[in-house]
Design goal:
This is alpha,alpha-trehalose-phosphate synthase (UDP-forming). By secondary structure, the chain is an alpha/beta fold. The N and C termini lie far apart (72 Å).
């Protein structure tokens, strides 16, 4: 079932990677038929996939991961059929504990085993009926490029801070691997689309394998309720920006409603990348972090995942565990066991741990014969030369240590590089006095959590180990500061794994810590781990996902952009594009018109190097001003000298400079001030402070105006400029607390101006003066593009219910661009603004030729 919404999405990979066919599935979950397009009573414009919303309630969850939480094997009998069972170790299965029992869960993912095409239909049917799992069958050649190629050669190393500086370090960027990555994500999207009820279902996507999946789903269903959780680190912007497809991945993730990270550092790096590469800023409100992205608020969740304590405790109660603990207790009798459990890959720091052990035995000879390091090395998930090098180095260091410090009956380092049963690993946890994790970079690492729970023990293990059941438990952790769980375990000894001497000393400290302190640290850790388990994590994430999706029912949505540049515009139902025909019709039938126009960003493109108005802009303004029924005002933040020079040819144009502090009704009128300011002595206080921040912030500058001072950091480093702006805002508010001024921050600016100066004041005076002249405006048009114009929108909108406007007045508050504002209308850009204004001016040219000449009235009184 191939969606028509996907005709262009593979073009985003700029390649022709083949898309494999899909096996026929004989059974599907019920699905609500949807029709693309926005509800007719909201807008006439067409849209892709704006499905009619329904109230938010979590009834069914679709969990999407790279692999299904299943184990598979061939039947030993002659039939050779596939047999499946739940993988109890899978996080995707364990997180169900955080859902209500009545929530239906559907899994979408691939299988570890390769299924022959002839068997795929039957397997899919079995998994759907028995496990509610929808398998995504990936052809082997594409899977190799996707998983072992793009995921493990590009994303995994980069997210762990390894740059491909040479072909040996991860390899150069390969476009064909990227195409395979996109292709596989599309296959997963198609599988989700077969089972989703887009109005009601929630979708939770997991990890870096499926980072572009949100774009595929959002393109097909604009209101899909979609969460994404990244289980790996997210690198700093300096590292991430080296990825050739950096923008595509960021924009794809931003098509989620909620994005989760294990730590604040990972979230901070993601937000910094969005700021530096996409120009997006985030806000924190009532404890929640959100990114405004084309009218949608993309929420950020920071919460480390937990473990499934029930599963651990059930394994602890197994007879096999008790027997293994007894065996190990006898094996290491009279010795202190320190334990390391790591995957055999380059980021786990196994060799660094071994070198620290070597250093410990060298510097503390009394530890020889007493301390044993048991290193469990799980099989690597990836493959390649780097894995082989880690294995060779690990074995070489272990051999050297054992040859140097070993003796009959004493082996300093016990390396276990074979797969262990879970109960065997649990047994090692139970007998270890200290757990060591020295990864140089790791997303979360739940080994310390498992260790803490296992050290709590149970009655049978207490008896085996000779521990009094009522005795306090104890444990010690030595953790790398570069792993995700480190911030959560505040009682651990944190180390820089690259500092071998420091790690060795930390290991020694862990051994000599007094028993009461070991007990206190263990109690603190156990309290945290037991209350922040996987169920808590899942429940908290889904709570935030529901909260993030509540506004879906209130927004109109439509999609724009191609490929992975696709995004959804989400706006209030009352906010719509200004129809030129509608406003021209209202313009023609009205007699007293007030027109207020912003300049920068409205009449002039915001990115233009030259800010001088062109001939087209001046011509349109003059055409509007020549109509005696119009009062046209340009309301700008610029100084009056500049505006006077630029618009000297517009003799009948009213100008409000410096956000309304200076006002002039036409070219021949004198400048007036809207607010009485006794003096500007405050400038002598504010300017030295701004100069201090200008000197220390490269790319910033001071804009000195007659009535105001502004500190602009548009060309400064985004993060540093924003940080400095916050500091400057606090500094200025402090030193100017007793002055009659307001200090405000805007987009890349911090401004100090007299109290009461605002653009809305110009609109208020204009409407009031027209009323006093007996010319109540029956047509009001106000156009602006930023926060400073919001005040004008609010004034003219509220005036409809007051005496300044007649009940039948036509009011048009219009912003530039589809962004949430207090305006009711929008136009896409300055070119549309100019075309609309030209349409107004030319609509009455014929009438103007036949009408008798009259002079324009001066509207604003000179007080």
């Amino acid at each position: 079932m191939v969606s028509r919404s996907y005709s262009n999405l593979l073009d985003l990979a700029s390649g022709d990677a083949p898309i494999p066919g899909f096996g026929r599935e004989r059974k599907r979950f019920p699905r609500v038929a949807t029709v693309a397009g926005i509800l007719s009573d909201l807008d006439d414009e067409k849209s892709v996939g704006s499905d009619a919303p329904s109230p938010v309630s979590l009834e069914r969850m679709i969990i999407v991961g790279n692999q299904l939480p299943l184990r598979a094997h061939r039947s030993p009998d002659s039939s050779g059929r596939w047999c499946f069972s739940w993988d109890e170790d899978s996080l995707l299965l364990q997180l169900k504990d955080g859902l209500r029992e009545d929530v239906e869960v559907i899994y979408v993912g691939s299988l570890k085993e390769e299924i022959e095409p002839s068997e795929q239909d039957d397997v899919a049917q079995t998994l759907l009926e028995t496990f509610k799992c929808v398998p995504a069958f990936i052809p082997p050649d594409i899977f190799t490029k996707f998983y072992h190629g793009f995921c493990k050669q590009h994303l995994w190393p980069l997210f762990h801070y390894m740059l491909p500086l040479s072909p040996d370090l991860g390899g150069r960027f390969d476009r064909s691997l990227w195409q395979a990555y996109v292709s596989v994500n599309k296959i997963f999207a198609e599988k989700v689309m077969k089972v989703i009820n887009p109005d009601d279902d929630y979708v939770w996507v997991h990890d870096y394998h499926l980072m572009v999946l949100p774009s595929f789903l959002r393109k097909r269903f604009n209101r899909v309720k979609l969460g994404f959780f990244l289980h790996s680190p997210f690198p700093s912007s300096e590292i991430y920006r080296t990825l050739p497809v950096r923008d595509e991945l960021l924009r794809a993730l931003l098509n989620s409603d909620l994005i989760g990270f294990h730590t604040f550092d990972y979230a901070r790096h993601f937000l910094s990348c969005c700021s530096r590469m996409l120009g997006l800023s985030y806000q924190s409100k009532r404890g929640y972090i959100g990114l405004e992205y084309f009218g949608r608020t993309v929420s950020i969740k920071i919460l480390p995942v937990g473990i499934h304590i029930g599963q651990l405790q059930s394994v602890l109660n197994l007879p096999e565990t008790e027997s293994k603990v007894a065996e190990l207790h006898d094996q290491f009798r009279g010795q202190t066991v320190m334990l390391g459990v790591d995957d055999m890959d380059i980021f786990k720091g196994i060799s660094l741990k071994l070198l620290a052990m070597e250093q410990l035995l060298t510097q503390h000879p009394n530890k020889r014969g007493e301390v044993v390091l048991v290193q469990i090395a799980n099989p690597a998930r990836g493959r390649g030369r780097d894995v082989q090098e880690v294995q060779s180095e690990t074995k070489a260091v272990v051999r050297r240590i054992n040859e140097t410090f070993g003796s009959p009956g004493y082996t300093p380092v016990v390396l276990i590089d074979r797969p262990l049963q879970f109960y065997e690993r649990i047994a090692y946890y139970a007998i270890a006095e200290c757990c060591l994790v020295t990864a140089v970079r790791d997303g979360m690492n739940l080994i310390p959590y498992e260790y803490i729970i296992c050290r709590q023990g149970n009655e049978k293990l207490d008896e085996t180990l000779g521990i009094t059941p009522s005795a306090p438990r104890k444990s010690m952790l030595v953790l790398s500061e570069f792993i995700g769980c480190s911030p959560s375990l505040s009682g651990a000894i944190r180390v820089n794994p690259w500092n071998i001497d420091a790690v060795a000393e930390a290991m020694n400290s862990a051994l000599i810590v007094p028993e009461p302190e070991k007990q206190m640290r263990h109690e603190k850790h156990h309290r945290y781990v037991s209350t922040h388990d996987v169920a808590y994590w899942a429940h908290s994430f889904l709570q935030d996902l529901e909260r993030s999706c509540r506004d879906h029912v209130k927004k109109r949505c439509w999609g724009i952009g191609f490929g992975l540049g696709f995004r959804v515009i989400a706006l209030d139902p009352t906010f719509k594009k200004l129809s030129v025909e509608h406003i021209v019709s209202a313009y023609k039938r009205t007699k007293n018109r007030a027109i207020l126009l912003d300049y920068d960003g409205t009449m002039m493109l915001p990115g233009s190097i030259s800010r001088t108005p062109n001939m087209e802009t001046v011509g349109v303004l003059n055409s509007l001003c020549t109509d005696p029924k119009n009062v046209v005002f340009l309301v700008s933040g610029r100084d009056r000298e500049t505006l006077t020079e630029w618009f000297s040819s517009c003799e009948k144009l009213g100008i409000a400079a410096e956000h309304g502090y200076f006002v002039r009704t036409d070219h021949d009128a004198e400048w007036e001030t809207c607010v009485s300011v006794p003096d500007f002595d405050w400038k002598s206080i504010a300017e030295p402070v701004m100069k201090l921040y200008t000197e220390t912030t490269d790319g910033s500058a001071i804009e000195a105006k007659e009535s105001a001072l502004a500190w602009n950091y548009k060309y400064a480093d985004p993060d540093f400029g924003s940080c400095q702006a916050k500091e400057l805002l606090d500094h200025l508010e402090s030193v100017l607390a007793n002055e009659p001024v307001t200090v405000k921050s805007g987009q890349h600016i911090v401004e100090v101006k007299p109290q009461g100066v605002r653009k809305g004041l110009v609109a208020e005076r204009l409407l009031e003066t027209m009323k006093q002249k007996g010319k109540l405006p029956d047509f009001v048009l106000c156009i602006g593009d930023d926060r400073s114009d919001e005040d004008m929108f609010e004034v003219i909108s509220s005036a409809r219910s007051g005496p300044s406007l007649p009940p039948v007045a036509e009011v048009f508050a219009c912003t530039v661009g589809r962004k949430p504002r207090k305006a009711k209308y929008y136009l896409d850009d300055t070119s549309e603004i100019l075309r609309m204004l030209q349409g107004l001016a030319s609509s009455l040219e014929q009438d103007a030729r036949s009408a008798p000449p009259s002079s324009q009235q001066v509207i604003i009184d000179r007080e």
